[in-house]
Amino acid sequence: MSMDKIEDDCLRPLNFIEEIIENDLKAGKNCQKVITRFPPEPNGYLHIGHAKSICLNFGLAAKYNGFCNLRFDDTNPSKEEKEFVDSIQKDVRWLGFDFTDRLFYASDYFEKFYDFAVYLIKKGKAYVCDLNSDQIRAFRGTLTEPGQNSPYRDRSVEDNLSLFLKMRDGQCLKGQSVLRAKIDMASSNLNMRDPVIYRIMPKPHHRSGDKWRIYPMYDFAHCISDSLEGITHSICTLEFENHRPLYDWFLEQLDVSCHPQQIEFARLNLTYTVMSKRKLQTLVEKKLVSGWDDPRMPTLAGLRRRGYTPLAISKFCERIGVAKTISTVDISLLEYFVREDLNRIAKRVMVVLSPLKVVITNYPQDQVEELDAVNNPEDESMGSRKILFSRELYIERDDFRENPPKKFFRLYPKGEVRLKHAYYITCEEVIKDDAGNLIQLNCRYDPQSRGGWSDDGRKVKGTLHWVSAKDAIKGEVRLYDHLFKVANPGASKDVDFCEELNPNSLEVLSDCLFESSLNEAKVTDHFQFLRQGYFCLDRVQATKGQLVFNRTVALRDSWAKIENSSKTQK
Ligand code: ATP
Ligand code: MG
User: Fold this and answer.
1) CATH code for the part of the protein at 277-347+475-569
2) Scanning 257, 319, 473, 487, which has its CA 20 to 30 A from the CA of 208?
3) pLDDT one-digit tens code per residue, 303-313
4) Ligand 1 binding pocket, CB closer than 6 Å
5) Is residue 494 packed enough to be buried (19+ CB in 10 Å), middle (13-18) or exposed (0-12)?
6) What count of other Cβ atoms lies within 10 Å of the Cβ of residue 133?
7) Which is the catalytic residue, given 18, 41, 81, 563?
8) pLDDT at position 6, please?
9) Are 395 and 464 in contact (CB under 8 A)?
10) What is the CATH number assigned to the segment(s) 351-465?
């Protein structure tokens, strides 16, 4: 499938969220405005699942001429950090979305949340409860049994106001005191059984400093933030479906003028990886990966470092669409979109991962010539470059067999191959060291085959990549495989997901030889190393002046194979 075909997907039928929005627009609801938001909690780096939500929220705003806010849901200072705030902004921008005038922090509403809580208390709809967390849990009941009222439920409004003030001022008698909404302990929805809305947490906040000792809970802060910002459609993942009655209850009780509509969709799950921030954090903390931006991580920072492009990610998100049912997407679909994009933009270069020396015995000792190498056969506008050819060069060790199996179209004794962009060569002699290890091939070249073509009609099947010994540069290449060895890591309760990591997810090749043009590589460049896959310079190692390339994705297009085989089965 080409990128054009992917563009056609924009002509797809409306998804269920677009249908809701279009009906609202037709009905003149929300003054015909569409305002969405992406509300990350800054307690980790964004991952590809977040990208789905970002593309959806910013995409809907763009499609319907509205706005999308980036709002930090930073109401829990025990887990949140400035590093995460910065990384999230960087990642959203990298995906191509602008939030310059639409950047918000829930922490900026702390005073307002407090006032709303006082408002609820005054209405008799909230109370200070001194049960500890275990007791609260025990009183909550179960799915089959109703809960029990807290003994503190009937405190007077005056008592509640003064106790809540004490909680705020840090004079609280008991650190366990919480403010709870007074709803219904017998509700069939557990979220409605007097949920906690404020808790004591004497922790400094990365934005408000020491000002607060109490912090609001997500369910309370989130709906109010949405309302304050005039959000029209509050789109979230399915696990919040059961929280929707609470979202609506708060906004009704608070008599706000803007009551956004919460809409849930299924979160993205991908095979061979995990997507929960808690699990990703565990991998980082246990040093099972090199950091949040380890190129094997499904984080946007990791994918960027690996060489994934924002376009590939957004095309992928568009393709998987939004639905109400949870499903797991095959990671090869994401890789497919990465290849599609890189095939367009990547410069083709030659790199030998495991070098074997070749001496062209009939090539003059001191001669060096420049050959033309086209940068991308798919795109003439990318031009061509000069590469040097001389008597000594390197080919891939794997491209030579002393005793070739059938259909081995590469190099073997007396066999002839084409060196890409250069000449035909024939292997004349195999040189080994005393221990019998292959160390060099002596070959002859055909001067008539310059550019890799000959007009005498002889067939040379194999084409090898190579680098010239004169100017090749040394460096490292890192090959990646799936982070986990099982398709659904963490699926079994009896197995620690860390045990399911793929021990071969990283292979480091440290004696690679690159063609000299790669000296000029920038971290934002993408390359196809001929016959090896797509690569990019590792941005972290590059800052240390080291030449390390990450393999973004191999050339093999397993998705196309899967698609083709399923087509032939039909
Ligand atoms: P955790 O991974 O610990 O469950 P979270 O991903 O929900 O946390 P948030 O920072 O609250 O963390 O997420 C911000 C937004 O991204 C939320 O609206 C959430 O619904 C959405 N989101 C998170 N994960 C996914 C996912 N896998 N697919 C789609 N949207 C997601
Ligand atoms: Mg969340």
Assistant:
1) 2.40.240.10
2) 257
3) 999 999 999 99
4) 39-41, 49-50, 52-53, 73, 236-237, 267-268, 275-278
5) exposed
6) 11
7) 41
8) 47
9) yes
10) 2.40.240.10
